[in-house]
Specification:
Distance between the termini: 49 Å
Shape: elongated
CATH architecture of the largest domain: Sandwich
Largest sheet: 10 strands, mixed
């Protein structure tokens, strides 16, 4: 006859109790996607990468100038109006292109050819217009810069020539000089201030970008090299280095899920990078941007962490109701003390349903945002989002107290990522 000790009975009871608890949790949430990083390499069926500096490619146009903004002129919250004439050599349909960060409008003979007057990352817009040869047409370009990176590229294309910068030889100012007359305002509304007159100069070409920096003036170049992003010992490792690459002084990685979800529970167990100048994040962006460019379609920051404030975790939401969407400009953000954030693994959790968003650290609620209004400007969180993990270097926030080059290489380790869906309960039959 089998002998069963009281100790065995106790162990069995504890096991049954834990099983019951797990089953209870499983009744609410069911795993629909996960990565435990058990393979030797990143699973490319689940992940992809953002690369570079966040600046658009200029290969189809020409090399850009990074020194376009006038000396001692503000790099944010300014606007420009360029005016003059454009010379046309052939009677054709012309496609005009503009890459801008942020808003832009193009008029040719008072026809609005391009209209994109809104905050946006560096984005290419185009417009088509038929023009006649041997004629000078009036041209006006209006542009505003809000915050972050600055970009403004003016190009064209026809069946006679491929996409290229509109050259100064085909532009003339109102008084006949090559190029366009640029009026620079120290506000983003093209308004003349009583206190300060606008700056006026001639720009022979409009072809410039001040670096990109993913909209935040960050200093890193994102790669997918193993040096910057890899799987090792069951962990996803993102590592920032001090090194020169493609004109940037630092390298790092930004990895994102190929899958996207509308609502769910998202668990990420991670250990964060240390050191002044690092800016790490576990976050989510809309996949289709159905309400418009950032911040109109929303952003969910499950965790943000800057190295100069090592024991503080920041969680936040961004939407159209904010003024620019920056931290401190919204009441939809929270700070949580976490002294071991850079030394130990902690669990960062997003619970997102059709009625509320809760963000937690080790089960403690950091931010709770209920859907109180059926207003997309405050609740764009009814569309599909994907996850992103990265370490930025410097930038408007991460570099607010400078960058300590001695902290590099600096790494973030992620133990696992799990995505749960709310289990649908069948209503009992009457």
């Amino acid at each position: 006859m089998l002998q069963i000790s009281s100790y065995s009975v106790l162990v069995a009871c504890v096991f049954l109790l834990l099983s019951s608890c797990n089953k209870q949790k499983g009744d609410d949430w069911v795993v629909v996607w996960q990565d435990e990083f058990e393979d030797e390499k990143i699973d490319l069926s689940k992940w992809t990468f953002d690369l570079g500096t966040g600046a658009p490619s200029f290969e189809a146009y020409a090399e850009s100038s990074p020194f376009f903004i006038p000396e001692n002129f503000p790099s944010d919250h300014f606007s420009v109006r360029w005016e003059g004439e454009i010379k046309i050599d052939h009677s054709l349909d012309y496609t005009f292109y503009i890459i801008s960060d942020d808003g832009v409008r193009l008029y040719i003979d008072n026809n609005l050819v391009i209209d994109s007057w809104e905050p946006q990352p560096a984005t290419e817009k185009k417009g088509l217009i038929n023009l006649k040869k041997n004629k000078m047409y009036s041209i006006k370009i209006e542009y505003f810069e809000q915050t972050g990176g600055e970009a403004m590229v003016f190009g064209w294309e026809s069946e006679k020539f491929s996409k290229s910068i509109v050259p100064g030889s085909h532009l003339s100012t109102p008084d006949g000089k090559p190029g366009l007359k640029g009026t620079y305002f120290k506000n983003k509304n093209l308004e003349i201030s009583k206190e300060e007159l606008p700056l006026i100069r001639i720009d022979k070409e409009i072809n410039w970008i001040t670096g990109g920096g993913w909209g935040n003036n960050e200093s890193q170049f994102y790669t997918k090299r193993e040096k910057n992003v890899r799987v090792k010992n069951g962990k996803l490792i993102i590592e920032a280095h001090k090194e020169l690459l493609q004109g940037s002084s630092y390298t790092s990685a930004r990895i994102k899920t190929k899958n996207s979800w509308k609502y769910g529970r998202f668990e990420i167990r991670a250990k964060l990078p240390a050191g002044r100048g690092t800016w790490s994040a576990l976050w989510a962006l809309p996949t289709d941007w159905e309400y418009g460019n950032w911040p109109l379609s929303g952003e969910i920051d499950i965790m943000e962490h800057v190295g100069y404030d090592e024991d503080v975790i920041v969680t936040s939401l961004h939407n159209a109701a904010l003024s620019g969407g920056a931290i401190g400009e919204t009441d939809q953000h929270a700070y949580l003390k976490q002294p071991d954030a850079c030394n130990e693994f902690n669990l960062y959790t997003l619970e997102w349903t059709e009625s509320e968003i809760k963000i937690m650290v080790n089960g403690k609620i950091s931010l709770h945002y209920p859907k109180e209004e059926k207003n997309w400007a405050k609740w764009p969180f009814d569309k599909r989002f994907h996850l992103l993990f990265n370490i930025a270097v410097g930038g408007n926030w991460g570099g607010a107290k400078g960058i300590d080059d001695n902290v590099f290489p600096s790494k973030m380790e992620i133990d696992y990522v799990r995505v749960f869906s709310k289990k649908v309960r069948n209503k009992p039959k009457k």
